Amino acid sequence: MQILMLEDEPLVAKNLEKLVRELLPQATLVGPLVSVEAALNWFKQNPEPDLILADIQLADGVSFDIFHELKVSCPIIFTTAYDEYAIRAFKVNSIDYLLKPIDKQDLKSAFEKFGRWQNTPDKEVFSHQLRDLLHDLEHRATKQYKHRFTAHYQRAVVAVAETRVAYFVREEVIWLVTIDNQRLITDYQSLDEIEDLLDPTQFIRANRQYIVRKEALESYRTHYSGKIELSLTVPVKEEIIISKDKAAQFRIWFEL
């Protein structure tokens, strides 16, 4: 069995290759190919593999672009660090979706799903499902994110523009802290509620206590343990730490 890997992060690719060899030692791995262009060139010169492991975000675009241009009939297991791509269509259309960092058990389940697909009499059904998925992705409504937040300042209720937010913090109540270090009480009940309203390209849930805006991040440093400590442009009462498990996802987000 031949598996084509589309992945532009060397460390992620190395870890994924290790997991694949543990779970499917008989498989032949091709790649990793790091870009849409490289993948298109590869498909022009080679027959389809049995399975594709495709990171959604590649060096020069998204892997969906490959499948828009080519008619691919083999199964695809999508991977990504960004859960905003996790729409129901991936499961409904029998295409597996794995969130980074890749869990071995999740990858095993995806391979088991691939095995069930191999025993399906009408394998052309997959290509139809993929076309339906791509059509849905093109035509789904764009989510509207919140750009102004109400908060309490003395006895007044004020509206704070997204561009003035440095971070949200949970300290018994939910506080909004501005870029000029004003601390304002909000009426939100949880960070989960706020997180759902925010543009994930601009804000990140650092941990259970903090949501941080990208423009308020000055720098970060990596601990020997693999955890990440954030340095903000405004003072904070304590260290803002991102866990080792979320470190790779954070680095990608920080660079975008």
UniProtKB/TrEMBL annotation:
The HTH LytTR-type domain sits at: 188-256
Q: Give the highest taxon in the source lineage.
A: Bacteria
- Alphabetized SUPFAM superfamilies for the sequence: CheY-like
- Which InterPro entries does this one have? CheY-like_superfamily, LytTR_DNA-bd_dom, Sig_transdc_resp-reg_receiver, WalR-like
Kindly list the positions at which 4-aspartylphosphate occurs in this protein: 55
Regions that span the bilayer: none
Keywords attached to this Swiss-Prot or TrEMBL record, sorted alphabetically, are: DNA-binding, Phosphoprotein
Molecular function terms from GO: phosphorelay response regulator activity; transcription cis-regulatory region binding
Q: Does the keyword NADP apply?
A: no
What GO CC terms are in its UniProt record? cytosol; protein-DNA complex
* Residue span, Response regulatory domain: 2-115
Q: Which organism is it from?
A: Runella rosea
- What is the protein's name according to its record? DNA-binding response regulator
Please report a single Pfam family linked to this protein.
LytTR
SMART domains linked to this entry: LytTR (SM00850), REC (SM00448)
Q: Which GO terms describe its biological process?
A: regulation of DNA-templated transcription
